[in-house]
# Entry
Amino acid sequence: MQPDPHEVALCVNGAPYRRTVEARMLLSDFLRHELRLAGTHVGCEHGVCGACTILLDGAPVRSCLMFAVQANGCELSTIEGLASASGDLDPLQQAMHEHHGLQCGYCTPGILMTMTAFLRENPAPSEDEVREALSGNLCRCTGYQNIVDAVLKAAANMRAAP
Amino acid sequence: MNFRLARPAVLIDINGLAELAAIDFEGGTRLGALTRYATLERNSGFLKACPLFADALPHIAHPQIRNRGTIGGNLSHADPASELPAVALAMQARMRLTSRRGERELAASDFFVGILTTDIGPEEMLAEITFPPLPRASGTCFMEVARRRGDFALAGVAVIISLDEEGYCTSIRVALCGVGDTPVDATAATTSLIGQRCTDQAIEAVAADVREAIDPPGNVHASADYQRHVAGVLTRRAIATACLRAADAA
# Structure
């Protein structure tokens, strides 16, 4: 197969990046291997497990179901951008920590990105709504209960924050 | 493509063609092929004109998928277990295909030709889908059973029914997903309801006829008999719900 390089320029967590990559490179592999942002995890690589969820122009998407070239010119958010520069956890991360919302942690980046977008759209969700929003992210450790608790607590904390 | 079911030599990204993402209500509901599920879910005018989508869209995978997936991609992929091909068949949608040689329009019934196969030629693309207006005083319902939330359906059914002022059925359309090589139009098996009131007995009789009319293939999750059973139960429930909605609309 002939090489087919394309230039990709995009923003991840507010920082601009420019790389030349093969057209067939997945966005998930681009983030991990080209940008060295390995917090985005790769599970099933066909859009089922949700581990690779990132925000593309603010909306959660599977980064394994897009090519890097398709994100040219886009604003991306990944797990690396959630905590502050000084290392303070954001409210959702803090709640996951306090409620033991993870065990092995492999699914956690995808869940945090999915729930970050969900709480922006629905700041006061019911438990059922949280479970529905979580349905596209597989977790084989926790049984989900502690994740649901953490998301509800994070929502309450974010509503109470000035 | 991740499964290597398709290995295209050339891949063209149409995401930059904003004019392919238009929603228009001139002469029915017209959707550009690039219209995303998430856009449809949030468009109240569209859901009012095409209420089957309000039932069906939440069954399609998960929010992360619905933010990217498009109606044109769904219908062109033609997965027989997918929801929207059955909805398109029930609504008698028309597909506008374009190529360098020109355009042609296809009925949904001629569009789906086999598993993951449509009548789109190698040089053509699906550009627009038109959903004709529903009959007056009609009610619709889509239901499915899947092993897990967001999975493809073991069986699903889309129903459109209209009633006259006295509550007699004047028309009914039924299409199913997951029970054949293509979405399956079972309308021919429902004619016993025309001119009848939608009593439990009449609905059960139609559901039994639909159950007999289909020939599900069976798969790793469900035997053919189980699919047939589920399809019958769903048909009965969906017709009953569509009747209630039609009565509300009358």
User: Anything to note?
Assistant: Residues 145-160 of chain A form the longest helix (16 residues). The longest strand of chain A covers residues 5-12.
